């Protein structure tokens, strides 16, 4: 199943080889099952707050005869999980605010964080910087006509100041993957839609309109750079 899910494949490629990951909000358990089956890790823990998803994960894992290598845990986020021997914390498919709340409850975390927010990406980036997590890289992924980013971060205790550009684009401009073009396209569309909405409402929020104008210009700049790279044979 994971072979048809670029988001999960992108995460799998970043998991510590031979490590012991925790997959929070595991749903059907596709990712931990893939990691173990492919020999990327020898064991994993799959957690979910819902009994239904965890049952589906149990059935999937049992069908692959991996029950002795993947532990299932019914819990809220990372609550009650022993993290002392875990190497990676994976949280995919949740909102950025929810991911930040889950991390905050066990802050600080020494494990590699692999986070794929569905919404509020800017909020999650801000949280990471303000709580001493260094964003090492971001990996763009495109799935079912939607663009996503996977944030890889580690705690080093350094509090960083970000700005509107970083909170909006993150470390994606440094990515070498061609999917970032589609991410920038999607982001530009969202920013322009928000701008038009404010203009139509004849809002007096001049500061917000100015901020959006700067972000839109930057998104277009990134897109032009990607087009140039493509024509230069680098994409």
Number of domains: 2
Count of helices? 8
How large is the share of residues in beta strands? 15-25%
Quote the CATH topology of the largest domain: Rossmann fold
Order of helices and strands: HEHEHEEHEHEEHHH
Distance between the termini: 28 Å
- The largest sheet has its strands arranged as 3-2-1-4-5-7-6
Number of E strands: 7
Main sheet record:
7 strands, mixed
CATH level 1 class label of the largest domain? Alpha Beta
In the CATH classification, which architecture of the largest domain applies? Answer: 3-Layer(aba) Sandwich
Query: Using only CA atoms, what is the Rg?
Result: 19 Å
Shape: elongated
Helix content: 40-55%
The SS-based structural class is: alpha/beta
The chain-level mean pLDDT equals 94
Low-pLDDT segments, ≥5 res: none
CATH superfamily of the largest domain: Vaccinia Virus protein VP39
Describe this structure as you would to a colleague.
The protein has 235 residues and is an alpha/beta fold. The protein is 43% helix and 20% strand. It has a 7-stranded mixed β-sheet with strand order 3-2-1-4-5-7-6, sandwiched between helices. The protein is elongated and about 60 Å long. The two termini are 28 Å apart. 34% of the residues are buried. The mean pLDDT is 94.
Characteristic key phrases:
single chain, 235 residues, alpha/beta, Rossmann fold
Write a brief structural summary.
This protein is of the alpha/beta class. The chain is 43% helix and 20% strand. The longest helix is centred in the last third of the chain and has 26 residues, at 206-231.
Q: How do the helices and strands line up, and which of them pair or pack?
A:
Elements: H1 6-12, E1 21-24, H2 30-37, E2 44-48, H3 51-63, E3 70-74, E4 88-94, H4 96-105, E5 112-117, H5 121-130, E6 133-143, E7 146-155, H6 164-169, H7 179-200, H8 206-231
Parallel strand pairs: 1-2, 1-4, 2-3, 4-5
Antiparallel strand pairs: 5-7, 6-7
């Amino acid at each position: 199943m994971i072979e048809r899910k670029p988001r999960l494949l992108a995460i799998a490629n970043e998991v510590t080889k031979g490590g012991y990951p925790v997959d929070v909000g595991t749903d059907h358990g596709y990712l931990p099952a893939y990691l173990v089956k492919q020999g990327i890790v020898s064991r994993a823990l799959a957690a979910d707050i819902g009994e239904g998803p965890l049952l589906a994960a149990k059935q999937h894992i049992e069908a692959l005869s991996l029950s002795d290598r993947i532990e299932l845990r019914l819990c809220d986020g990372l609550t009650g999980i022993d993290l002392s021997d875990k190497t990676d914390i994976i949280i995919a498919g949740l909102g950025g605010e929810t991911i930040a709340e889950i991390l905050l409850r066990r802050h600080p975390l020494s494990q590699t964080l692999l986070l794929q927010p569905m919404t509020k990406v800017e909020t999650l980036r801000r949280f990471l910087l303000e709580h001493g997590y260094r964003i090492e890289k971001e990996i763009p992924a495109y799935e079912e006509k939607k663009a996503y980013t996977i944030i890889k971060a580690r705690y080093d205790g350094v509090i960083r100041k970000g700005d509107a550009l970083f909170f909006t684009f993150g470390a994606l401009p440094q990515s070498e993957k061609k999917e970032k073009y589609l991410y920038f396209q999607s982001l530009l569309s969202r920013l322009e839609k928000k701008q038009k909405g404010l203009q139509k409402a004849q809002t007096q929020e001049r500061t917000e309109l100015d901020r959006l104008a700067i972000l839109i210009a930057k998104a277009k700049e990134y897109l032009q750079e990607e087009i140039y790279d493509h024509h230069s044979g680098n994409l």
